[in-house]
Every structure is written in C-alpha cells, then in structure tokens.
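Why do we bother with a discrete structure alphabet at all? Because it lets us treat a fold like text: something you can write down, compare, and reason about line by line. To make this less abstract, here is a complete entry for ATP-binding protein. Read it the way you would read a sentence in a foreign language you are learning: slowly, and without expecting to understand everything at once.
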Amino acid sequence: MSDDSSMSENNKVDTRSISLASNNVPFRTRARTIDHLGRGQIADAPTAVSELWKNAWDAYATQVSLNIFDGTPVIAAIFDDGIGMSAEDFIEKWLVIGTESKIDGPSTAPPVDFVGPRRERQGEKGIGRLSAAFLAPATLVLSQQADGPISAVLVDWRLFENPFLSLDQITLPVRTFEDWAAIVDGLQSMADVVIANLGKRDASGAFSLKPEWQRYADTESESYGQTTAGSVLEFWRSMPVSQRHLEEWPVFADLAKHGTALFLLGAHHELSVWLNSAHDDEEAKKVKDRLKDILTGFTDTLSPSPVAFEYEVLAYRGDVPRRILASSDVFDLKDFQELEHSVEGAFDEVGIFRGTVKAFGEELGERIIPPPRPLPVARSDRPGPFAFAIGTFEQIEASSTHSAQRHKDLVELVDRYGGVRVYRDGLRIMPYGSAEADFFSLEETRQKHAGRYFWAHRRSFGRLAFTRAANPALRDKAGREGLVENRASRELRLLVQALLIKLARDYFGTDAPERAERIAETQKRNMKGKKAADQARKRRRNEFRAYLNDATKRMPQLAERAESISVRLGDPNQQRTKEAVAAMRAEVEQAREELTALTPLDVPNTLGDAEDRYRAFRDALDEARDLILLSDETLRGLEAGVGAATPREIVSAAQARHREALDKLLDNYQAEIREGIRSITSAWTSNLADDRSRFERATAPLIRKMSAETDLGDLLSLLESVRRELEVEFNDRYRPITRNIVTISEGIDADTALTTIDEDREELERRVRDLNAVAQLGITVEIIGHELEALDSEVSRNLDRLPEASKSTDEFRRALDAHRALTEKLRFLSPLQLAGARLRETITGKTIADYVRAFFRPIFSDNGITFDSTQAFDAISFTELKSRIFPVFINLVNNSIYWVGRSEDRRIRLDFTDGKIVVGDSGPGVDRDDVRRLFQLFYTRRTSGRGVGLYLARVNLEAGRHTIRYATDDDPQVLSGANFIIEIRGLDSGA
C-alpha cells in the first residue's frame, strides 16, 4: 500500500473519531459493576456479615443471627425479626443500587410494634446488601411484613461477572407467596428464571447460550477450561434450600410475626470452615479467630445505655446447632468498672477531655485535659464530640490490686475481648479493636518504651463512641474497612493518642510519680495477706482436728452418762425424794456442761478424710443431746412435785443453777482474756522498749565519726533517711495490732470475719475448678456427640441399603432394635451439649412421665422398682424447651434409682400438690448436712457418682427462670425418702 493510501486511511479514522466525539451519549452500566461493588469492595466474610447485620438494624430488628448449615452446597442464612419487605420493596428498593432512602436526612420512623427509640441509619451508600455477593454465589431472600404475604427474590451473583452484558440485560425473579406450602414449589420456578438469563433449551433438551454468554464462555474456555455459565447451570439442577433450612427462621417457626431471611447458597469458605472437624489446620483456625474477633462486641457493651440488638452465630451439623458466639458473650460495663486502671469520659467539640481516672483501684476524681494543640476551624475537619473509655490491669499478678483469681479471669477475658473498639450509634465500625486493627497505634508507641507509654492494644478494654448526627465528618470507607482517612479522623486519633500518653506519664507508666510506690505497697500487701490467710487457715484446721480427736475420745463417756441418767429417771423403782432429785439434777447439769464443751463452734466447709469421723461423732452427739433434753424435762416435773418446796423455791433454785453455770462459763472466758491481754501486753511492751532505742543505735556511729570535714548537709540527710526507714517499719508492725484492738473494742468478731472470707475464697476457688472441669465435660460431650451422630447416620444409611431378604431376618430386626435404643440414648445427650434445640413446646406431665418410663423401663424391671405418676401430675402443662426439662427428670429419677436400691421398698413417684411438682422416692433420704451442697457441681455421696446431675438440673431450670430445691418441712413430701420440689413458671394445673 502506498503512503498516500495510508494517509487517506488515517484521515478516515480521524474523521470517524471526530464524528463520534461530537455525539451526546450517556454512561452505560455493565453488569460487572455489581460484582465490583459487592465482592470487590468487601475485605472478608466477617465484614460482609456485619454489613448485612447493619441492614437488619436499619430494618428495626431486635434479633439477628448467622446460621451455617452443613450439606452440599453449604448454606448460610441471616435471620432477623425486622420490619420485613414486600415485593414492591424488593423492586423499588432492594434491587435498586444507591437508593434515595440513604440520602442524609431524618431517620426512618420505627414500626408501630417496635419498642425503643428511633434509630439512626447505618447504611450510607445503598450497597450494603451487595455484601451477600461476597458470602455466596447465589442469594435467596424471603421476607414477611406484619399480616402480609411472603415475598421472595432470587439472585445469582455470577450473572454479573459477564463483561459483555449490560445491567439491564439481567432479569431477576420476584415472587409473592400466600402460604409456606407454596414456597417449596415456587422456588424452582424462580431458579428457572435465573437460568433463562443464560439461554434456553430446544425441543430436544439441548441448552443453547445467548450470544453474550457464548462469547464469555469461549473466552473463559481458552483461559480457565471451565465456564461461569456451566457452573450456574450445574448449580441450579435442584433447589438447595429445603424445609430444614426454612424451619430455623423464627418467622417460619411462628416465633416472630415479621422479618427477613437471607439464604446464602454455596457459602464462602470462611463460613463453611465452621462445619469442619475439630482437627483444623492453621488456616482454618485463623479464619475462625478472625470471625470471632470481628463479630464479638458487635454492639457497644461499655455504654451506660447499650442498644437493644441481640445477635448470635450458629453452626448446624444435621439438626443440632452449635453456638459460635452471641451478644451475651462480652466484656460489659460492670466488668470494666471493676478494673484497677481505667479512664472514662468524653471529648467535646473543641477537643477538651472531661472524665474520671482510676489507678490501682483508687478513684482519682474528675480530670479536665485540653488538647495538645487547637483543632481546625472548619467543621468538616473536626471529629466532633465523642465518648472514650479505656481500662486495663497490672499484668504481673503480685503487682495487681485484683485478687489472684480475678487476675487470672482478666487474663482470659482480655485474650477474648481485648482491644479498643469504635462504635457509631451503638454498632461497631469494623475492624477497629481486632487483633491487627490498632486504630490508635498503641503497640507502635509502646515499642519506644513499653513501661513509659503503658497502654497495650490487646491488653486493654475500651471503646470510642460517636454518632452520625454529631460527627458527620467521620465516614466509612467504601470497603467498610474503617473510617475514611480524612483530616477529621486523623484529628480524632491524635486527640486520643495525646490523652493516653499524658495519662500514662501522670498516673500509669513507669515515669508516673507514684507508680513504683504503689506497686511496692501492693506487692507487700499481697504477700502479707496471703501469708496471714495461709497461717489462719492452717491454724483453724489444726484446731478443728485437735478438737475432733479430743471430742471423739470423750464422746463415749458422755453418751454413757446420758443413757444412764435417762434409764434411772425412767425407772419407777428409783427414789423420788428431794435429796435424790437434787442429786439427779447435779448429774444432768454436769452432762449439759460436757455437751456444751463437746459441741463444735466452727466446722470447716472442707473436712477431707475427717468427714466420716466427724459425721459419726455428730450423730452420737445429737443422740446424747436428745437424751439429756428429755431427762431435763422429766427432772423438771419431778422437781415440781417432790417435797414441800413451793413453786417459787423450785424456780429460784433452777435460776440459781443456770446462773451458776453461766458464771462459770464467763469466769473461764475472763481468765482466757486476761491471760491473752497479759501475754500481748508483755510481748508488745518489750518490742516497744527495744524499738525506742533503734534510732539511737542506728545513728550513734554517724555522730561519733563526725569531724570538721564532715558535710553537715549529708549527715542531716542520713539522719532523716534513717528516721523514714524506721517510720515505715514501725507503721507496718504496729498499725495492724492497733487496728485489731480497735476492731475488738468495737465488738467486731475478726476471727469469724476472716473465717467467712477465707471459706468464701475457698468456695470460689473450688467452684472455679468445678466450672473448668464441667467446661471440659461439655466440650467432651460435644465432640463425642458429633462423632456418634456421624456414626449413627452411617449405620442408618447402610441398614437401609441392605437387601430386602436380609431385612426380614430376626438378626436384622434385633440389630435394628438395638440401634434404635442407642439412638434414643444419643438424643438424651443432646441437651448436655453446648447448644440445643430452640423450639418451645407445650409439655404435659404425662409426656414427662411417659418419657421417663420409656427411658428407664429395663432398669425399673430388672431392679424391682415401682415408678408411677399421679393424675394431678399427668394433668399439668406448660410451655418450655424439651431439652431443658426432660434431662431434669432423668437426672432426678436416675439418682432415685441408685438410692432406692438400698431399700426393701423401692418406689419412685412424680406428683403435683400445693402448686408444686414433687419427685419423691422411698430411699434413705438426704443427710441434713448434705442438703446445702446438693446442687453444687461435683458434690456427690454416691460411690461412683460424678456430682453433675443435680447441678445440671438446677442450671437447666434457672435458664428458664424455674426453681428446684430439696423439700423442707413446710413442703409436701410424697414418699418417705428424698423429695425434690420443682416450681415451673407459667404452669397450668389442668384443674
């Protein structure tokens, strides 16, 4: 081709370009825009979930949940009880990107049945719903408004990946269903609409793609080998949503009148990983930790007025849910206010902080701290007013003012809930507060000098809270990963950083004037307190063992004396003269004195190997006491009737005897007090005399060595230093004894107080150990339950696949019966797991009795036990979770089975009388000293028992605000042995 022709061709191109450039044309939107705004703008699955939860908030939901179901494909669902959407809402709002409802202005008014204040919208750009595209390739949304039909929309987000499609070339199905039965049938027809976007089938059944999809498929085949169109067609061969998924939605289960269910079909790996086995790889563990870190503390629990918005995440293996996290699992304001170090207050419009400071558990009052420099003048550059709080504790236990157990608890809590989170209108802004999102650069600052700058990101609890109305310059990034990095957010960060540095310098860090002194005092007090407590505990135990050894040796003599007195008073042949009666009175009074001397004043909670010996002694002492009391009554009658003595003389003589006994007791105490005071006075007088010469002895050598060359200032400083050291030593030595003397003079029983405190501490330590053990038990049951469920499913599937000829044999029937029995036992395990069914049902007494009877039928038969329920019990009814109620009766009856086995009469009865459920048996009953500990975890008198059953019964009932106790004398008792009283809220007696 010649140059002229080339130039001519170029001229044509230029002319065409000029022609196109002179046209007036609009922007055209490709379908891929949706893909970019959805998956392309979201950092990870937890952030996407939080966006959808915020949509539920905007819909005035009070409860929202993420539910992850196993199966193929994995389905996740977000359920809420918000106002719901109609088909018109889907068309005019949900399927319109950047809707006008998101324009700043007055927030939406709450629905009529909503209880609470008007909510500020969390959404800004009208694209939050596109987060669903990150979580799954397809989304089914079902929604119902109060008294309205069920509306639905189905979206396959893969349709928006085709770069050759315009947005208006994709059609999505929106449907309305009048009842739930129509949904299952209607969903597949909605899937057909989705498939029709790709092409259509001809008469032979072959599917032909539309030109745009064929072009895209050709491009994908060259690069990847598989096509988006092929994946979509394969996915929609059947509808993955089933009755199982629908039933967990509270609206479907008739537990809510309105709300929305967003089903995520083919859930993202970051959600499906929760369905894997317990043996996770490192990547799976990090994914799980990330979700917990981001979604825990979704609402501001450190606020004095937290918002009403409950949330939870559940993972389903089969029909059994396992709770991953919930809104109740948080570090709340009460926990925060118990921290030994804390700052709590607010910054105003010009950056001045006003708030309270607490250091080492001591309230230091209000502090007003100005900003390090003036804030910008322009409102758009200012952060606006905001609340701020941060708290922590000393990391070394010996330096902390918290108790050892509380310190241990805080170490565990900070691992789970540590970090300073940021909230707008009560909801968390992601990801601030998570492990890697240190908004205030606390760790970076600490690298300069950890002690001086003090505050650590993951060793602190805190919150920064503001509102959309008062802080318009603080806006979210497009990807929902924090605030836009504008001047307002930078000024906010600088204000907080400057405040923390100043507070660390003044009160908390190594440069703080009083820190070293406070830590030294705390360490000394902790060491001294622990030593004193150990000594007091050891002394009490030794004293009790010494008492028990002595009392056990003396008890037979007292028992013999009490028996002899009783026999002689009951013998009609004994003399009844005044002299004989007086002699018997002397013996009775002597026996009463011995009884008083042997009666223990303080029995430790934990007796260890001495418990059996003490109980045997206690029972013998009670028998002797009863005999002496009966003898005293008999003797009083004889004293009133013998001789010519008048009633006044008899009463006066009795009064004199009692006064003489009390005088003798007081004389003994007076002697002990005098001896104690004499000993204390002698010891402390000697100490004081020695200490008076200490200063002279310490400073005399300094004076002797003084010469003309001695620096007078240095010598005076040395003298003052010696005085101060001795002052500290004397204060530590004499203040405790003076405080104890004052305590005694004011009538306060310090020993009893110390005993009570120490026993409370022992009890708390024991309960913590028990709770740790039961946590391990719960985890073990959870793991075993999951494994057994899988094996049960496998056995059932293979039994069903056996040939019909095999199924007709006796061997098959016996195997099937055994498998069904095992399955029933597995169902009993489910209430012990960490999560259980949530559906409340009407439960009758007859249902409970039949369940117990079927569960224990072989045991009742083999052990000759009669089990029955009264008509009154069978007639009761109430609404509750079966998984909460049935285990209570199973545990109670299981205990009764053990104890009635030690009786000839073996009966167990369920009754309802005086408005109370009674579970009674004919066993030996419960020892009175055991009653107060019956419901403590791991307390048991059974030789092979674990002490878990009654504890779980109490906890299960308390979860529903019901109660259980051992029957008192005022309660109905249906059989002669143990009787347990259960009181159920909302019970209908059927009368």
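What the structure line is telling us, in plain words: The CA atoms of residues 488 and 665 lie 79 Å apart. Residues 331-484 form one domain.
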